[in-house]
Design goal:
The structure holds two protein chains of two kinds.
Chain A lengths: L3 E3 L7 H11 L11 E10 L3 E8 L5 E8 L9 H12 L8 E6 L3 E6 L4 E2 H8 L5 H20 L2 E2 L8 E4 L4 E4 L6 E2 L4 E2 L12 H4 L4 E2 L2 H16 L10 H9 L27 H4 L5 H10 L10 H4 L8
Antiparallel strand pairs in A: 1-2, 2-3, 3-4, 4-6, 5-6, 7-9, 8-11, 9-10, 12-13
Helix pairs in contact in A: 4-6, 6-9
Chain B lengths: L3 H17 L4 H7 L6 H10 L9 H7 L3 H13 L6 H18 L20 H14 L9 H12 L3 H17 L9 H13 L4 H9 L6 H13 L17
Helix pairs in contact in B: 1-6, 5-6, 6-7, 8-9, 8-10, 9-10, 10-12
Classes of the chains: A alpha+beta, B mainly alpha.
């Protein structure tokens, strides 16, 4: 493992500077800081690359650096990087992780973020859920505030899960991260690629619904809320998530989801009665349970929006 | 704005990509962008200023003095398959690639950009370098706000009939792509409002003022000025003088 990450942008080299001068007729933006970040710890390793916790050698600032490799030379800079960076440029909010700097290298990019202590999945694993009702409420409220902000900016996150939600431990502040799959939307849009994580995926996505919208993020928030209560993913281990969803919430009908019978896939599912959610999520207050049901509403058109969810009685105190 | 010049070039690409990619996802996205909320449009109006070109850009472009106006013209030549130099082809290729990465689900491989026997063939790494340079120069602010961002919302505010919305939308797209650099002095929302009004309304002063009253977030005088310019450039036909009905304000 490299011990250090240098603080110099690849496009600061002479060739690039010449190109840029030709292009813009200016040459005043460059300053070689010549400092580096000392790697303190590897926080996460994924297929895209690694996340490190680092300290800046000159200022002493602690940051999180996400290093993303460009592994397909036929495509160049991955579209997930282009989208994540440009969306984070547009989003500035206390509940969304802030991107401090982008350091491009020839074959990878370092995204320098504000320091992140721990993700929600670790927190849930270590504490068997979020047992303290007031912390749980605060976490959910902050997640919804962040999601509402994204949706107001016409941005769908599309990959909300405890691993992508970070906690600033000292202040207990939630930071939504990982916008690699996020994208702009206009009302609703054609579904072409599925977000990879099946546990938090909305039923309309499993049914190959032609258009999806902000509802998919709210479904994921519902799953996360439930997981904070019971301490594990609400669907549990299953090879057919949609079947597990119907087992828990009841198989939908034309009555509670108009148009459901039009989906070719729907016919192959058994008819289940809904479980009693107050026993499944027994640790949850009645208002919380009501909100959870509204988030886990099968019909995306009737699912509660982030904006409305924040006005729910659960958050009254 | 510091990075004004190349930004506007790339904006041009963002606007043009919808034609290039034909039946890709963004088309259907447009069809469905009627349902955007009032709040999100207000946010866009606040943010669109970040995507405006530098103040002297239009002047430089008109005088043809700056390097940029040459580059811009050559980039358009590349799009229109006319002969250009290697630098501009590389720049245009990179802009095109970035636009696809932001807006499309399928991003063309570099090799596919060489279809149609272009003058120069670039190595993948060279294109990637140029992409990074463009991204860094524009500070990675790729979520551009263009007239396309507003048009669906504005049309839905002016007209309620669904079938009329669809035809108005395609008329608007044609109109927005036909306007020239002279419209650079207007904000994206102002252009979109003027276009929306001109495709949905009989262009009479009374009707126009009625439509304007339902578009609260744009400045009426600016939209009227934009409509006047469209009329002067014969982009649209307007009957009578738009400013005769001042009492409406």
């Amino acid at each position: 493992m490299a011990e250090e990450i240098d603080d110099i942008d690849y496009t600061d080299n002479l060739f690039m500077r010449l190109l840029q001068c030709t292009l813009c007729g200016q040459n005043n933006r460059f300053n070689y800081e010549g400092f580096s970040y000392k790697i303190l710890q590897t926080i996460e390793e994924g297929i895209y690359g690694r996340v490190y916790r680092c300290r800046h050698s000159a200022t002493g600032d602690i940051v999180a650096i996400k290093q993303i490799k460009f592994d397909d030379e036929k495509i160049g800079v991955p579209s997930s990087v282009v989208r994540e960076v440009s969306l984070l440029r547009a989003l500035q909010h206390v509940n969304i992780v802030s991107l401090l700097k982008v350091l491009t290298k020839e074959t990878y990019v370092n995204l320098v973020f504000e320091p992140l202590d721990q993700d929600l999945s670790h927190y849930i694993r270590d504490n068997r859920g979020v047992q303290d009702p007031s912390i749980r409420k605060s976490f959910l409220r902050q997640i919804l505030v962040g999601v509402a902000y994204c949706h107001a900016h016409k941005i769908l996150h599309r990959d909300l899960k405890p691993k992508n939600i970070w906690i600033d431990n000292s202040r207990m502040i939630i930071k939504i991260a990982d916008f690699g799959l996020a994208r702009e939307f206009g009302g609703d849009m054609l579904l072409t690629r599925y977000p990879p994580n099946r546990y938090y995926r909305a039923p309309e996505v499993f049914l190959h619904c032609q258009h999806y919208s902000s509802g998919i993020d709210l479904w994921s928030v519902g799953c996360i809320f439930g997981e904070m209560v019971i301490g594990r993913p609400i669907l549990g281990d299953t090879c057919d998530e949609l079947d597990a969803i119907f087992r828990m919430l009841g198989t939908p009908s034309e009555e509670n989801w108009p148009g459901i019978t039009q989906f070719p896939l729907f016919g192959s599912y058994a008819i289940y009665n809904p479980m009693d959610l107050s026993t499944v999520f027994s640790g949850l207050e009645p208002e919380g349970l009501e909100l959870l049901k509204m988030l886990l509403c099968l019909d995306p058109k009737r699912r509660i929006s982030a904006e409305t969810a924040l006005k729910h009685a659960y958050f009254k105190d | 704005m510091e990075e004004g010049t190349p930004l506007t070039l790339s904006l041009k690409f963002f606007e043009h990509k919808k034609i290039f990619f034909g039946d890709f996802e963004s088309d259907s996205e447009l069809d469905h962008n009627f349902q955007v909320s009032d709040e999100s449009v207000e946010v866009m109006v606040q943010r669109e200023g970040e995507h405006l070109p530098r103040e002297d850009y239009l002047k430089n472009l008109r005088s043809g003095e700056s390097n940029m106006s040459v580059v811009r013209k050559q980039a358009l030549d590349w799009i229109l398959k006319r002969g250009i130099n290697w630098f501009t082809q590389l720049l245009a290729t990179a802009c095109f690639q970035i636009a696809a990465k932001m807006g499309e689900t399928k991003v063309p491989q570099y090799a596919r950009l060489h279809v149609g026997s272009p003058k120069f063939i670039f190595e993948a790494l060279t294109i990637q370098r140029m992409e990074l340079l463009v991204l860094n120069t524009l500070e990675w602010k790729m979520q551009a706000i263009t007239p396309c961002s507003f048009i669906g919302y504005f049309i839905s505010k002016i007209t309620c009939e669904k079938h009329q919305m669809k035809s108005s939308l395609s008329k608007s797209m044609k109109l927005m792509l036909s306007i020239s650099i002279d419209f650079l002095e207007f904000r994206a929302s102002e252009i979109a409002a003027a276009v929306a009004i001109s495709v949905t309304r009989e262009l009479e002063a009374k009707e126009i003022h009625k439509a304007l009253s339902s578009l609260a977030m744009v400045k009426k005088e600016r939209v009227l000025k934009c409509l006047e310019l469209m009329k002067d450039m014969s982009v649209v036909k307007v009957s009578g003088n738009l400013f005769t009905n001042e009492s409406v304000f």
